């Protein structure tokens, strides 16, 4: 255990020396990120139509991932680094019953959104965060690129209601537990539920 922790420590140092961005912005458009299902998964909020008079703004499950280098930085410093990308993959509400009971179970992938914190790319956005969607209007496909939304469309609500630097960490226990611990991702390492 000691050896493996030391090894990860060296790995983190190596990453810091060579900070990598997990996205490409060309001519003001974000290229559709790839490979994010291999990143760090932080949670799945769902705001189903049934509980919102049939008119939820985002009626599907939202599987949320953070890029691995930003996760390492978050654990070390307790902040989102310049260059953070967080993905929100939309998944339809599929079945509402299972042998375990009634509920909201994940159906199919139906969309993709992202937010990026970058002084270089978003010098004038509140908190340097920009917001993107790759979902087509019919949710049947994804676009190759996306332009950032105007701050009023996305950024403003995040600024007003998100718990930690525009990110809704109040709904992501993985992020809350990892924040600034300086440790290998917990879960099973201690007897605490954190
Ligand atoms: C009315 C408030 C509101 C608006 C407007 C809004 N969001 Fe969010 N967003 C949320 C909430 C609440 C969450 C977390 C819970 C959830 O996913 O339902 C979230 C989560 C996210 C996440 C995951 C990372 C995070 O910050 O928690 C992304 C990415 C995201 N939204 C993108 C967008 C985009 C793109 C737009 C504009 C098209 C947008 N949001 C507009 C409230 C909002």
Automatic annotation (TrEMBL):
Q: Is Signal included in the keywords of this UniProt record?
A: yes
Task: State the signal peptide span.
Answer: 1-19
By its UniProt entry, which CDD domains does this protein fall under?
A: cyt_P460_Ne-like
Q: Which UniProt keywords apply?
A: Signal
In terms of Pfam families, this protein maps to: Cytochrome_P460
Looking at the record, the residues that make up the Cytochrome P460 domain are 33-169
Q: What is this protein called?
A: Cytochrome P460
Question: What organism, scientifically named, is this protein from?
Answer: Enterovibrio coralii
């Amino acid at each position: 255990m000691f050896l493996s922790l030391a090894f990860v420590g060296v790995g983190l140092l190596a990453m810091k020396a060579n900070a990598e961005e997990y996205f490409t912005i060309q001519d003001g458009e974000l290229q559709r990120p790839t490979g994010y299902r291999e990143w760090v998964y932080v949670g799945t909020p769902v705001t189903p139509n049934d509980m919102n008079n049939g008119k939820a703004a985002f009626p599907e499950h939202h599987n949320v991932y953070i890029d691995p280098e930003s996760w390492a930085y978050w654990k070390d410093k307790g902040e989102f680094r310049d260059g953070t990308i967080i993905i929100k993959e939309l998944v339809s509400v599929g079945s509402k019953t299972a042998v375990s009971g009634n509920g909201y179970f994940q159906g199919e992938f139906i969309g993709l959104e992202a937010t990026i914190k970058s002084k270089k790319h978003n010098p004038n956005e509140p908190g340097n965060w920009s917001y993107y969607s790759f979902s087509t209007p019919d949710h049947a496909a994804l676009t190759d690129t996306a332009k950032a939304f105007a701050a009023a469309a996305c950024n403003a609500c995040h600024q007003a209601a998100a718990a930690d630097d525009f990110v809704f960490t109040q709904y992501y226990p993985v992020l809350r537990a990892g924040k600034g611990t300086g440790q290998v991702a917990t879960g099973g390492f201690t007897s605490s539920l954190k």
